[in-house]
Amino acid sequence: MQAVTKTNFKFPKQKSLYVGKVRDVYNINDEYLAMVVTDRISAFDVVLPKGIPFKGQILNQIASEFLDLTSDIVPNWKIATPDPMVTVGRKCEGFKVEMIVRGYLAGSAYRAYRDGAKELCGVPLPQGMKENDKFPEPIITPTTKADAGHDENISKAEIIKQGLVSKEDYEQIENYALQLFKRGSEIALKHGLILVDTKYEFGKANGKIYLIDEIHTPDSSRYFYLEGYEERQQKGEKQRQLSKEFVREWLMDNDFQGKQGQQVPEMTDEIIEGISARYIELYENITGKKFIKADKHSDILQRIEENVAKCINNL
Fold first, then answer.
1. What is the DSSP pairing of strand 193-205 with strand 97-104?
2. Which candidate, 14, 13, 17, places its Cα nearest to that of 36?
3. DSSP for 162-179?
4. How many angstroms separate the Cα of 39 from the Cα of each of 217, 242, 313?
5. Assign residue 245 a region: left if phi > 0, alpha if psi is -120 to 50, beta otherwise?
6. Residue 245 near residue 231, CB atoms below 8 Å
7. First and final CA of the chain: distance in angstroms?
8. Could you tell me the pTM of the whole model?
9. CA-wise closest residue to 111 among 137, 92, 131
10. Contacts of 121 (CB under 8 A, 6+ apart)
11. 1, 25, 163, 312: most buried by Cβ count inside 10 Å?
């Protein structure tokens, strides 16, 4: 199995390349972006040393589908998906915050709550909650958008005070985020899933707000299986999850949380194949569709380059 962990294309009208943790983003003439979703995998803000075959295709295709399914709520950056691993879209100036919407007390929010936090990002937390309990209403716990290292929790008041986002724009993206979460939750329920929490990113182009980046993928979202959720909660058992959390748990079980001096555990072929299989399971459960592996092109990079170049020339 071939994993794409590095790209260095020279597309028509290309101005620059930004390499993120997972995505390689090509600036096309300061008008468009060609976002290549690689097979890199990150956890605890660290890019792991080996890629996961088909992960890029899975994330790109889920995000592409959900962008289409939510375009009536908020305009988004997507123009085309010329390759299974690539989305081409409108270049926007991204807001310096990520909007985290939480429907349930899970992940880092639960860990903070367990350690005594009474509020999160300025949002008061109800008393007496257990891990994975549902909030009375979804809450928004924004983070700063760090260029490198860890994103930091921040309150709405602080975002506005620091001028990261204007009050008017913030309230608009807050409204969009809650509507998107509601739609994502409705779609998840149809597939026997619960959308637990997720992140959204927004940007502006020509004075208009757009949804950008990915949406409702297992890298940006956490899902539980609906069947047996209530029973497991009552018994205090772990929930069955569909998210990247299983990768974090494997790392934590092997004494790695991205802290200085810690070593990433060995990623054997068996571990990599297992993670790839879990991502395929995620795709099929989240979309309700069978995953079809991209054609066995002898050179994936050549396929991407040809498909994207053709798309750019037609823009």
1. antiparallel
2. 17
3. HTSS-HHHHHHHHHHHHH
4. 14, 18, 26
5. alpha
6. no
7. 33
8. 0.91
9. 131
10. 140, 141, 142, 143, 153, 154, 155, 156
11. 312
Mean of pLDDT values over 156-161: 97
Residue-wise pLDDT tens digits, 26-61: 999 999 999 999 999 999 889 999 999 999 999 999
Q: According to the model, what pLDDT value does residue 244 have?
A: 82
203 compared with 245, residue with greater pLDDT: 203
Token pair 């798309």 in the structure block, residue: 311
* Residue 96 and residue 165 in contact, taking contact as beta carbons nearer than 8 Å: yes
Structure tokens given for 83: 């390759």
Give the SS3 label for residue 149. Answer: coil
Collapsed DSSP state (helix, strand, coil) of residue 310: helix
What is the chain's alpha carbon radius of gyration, rounded to the nearest angstrom? 19
Distance CA 185, CA 177 (A): 12
Task: Quickly tell me which residue has 């990247």 as its tokens.
Answer: 244
- Do you know the residue count of the chain? 315
Sign of CA dihedral 308, 281, 52, 107: positive
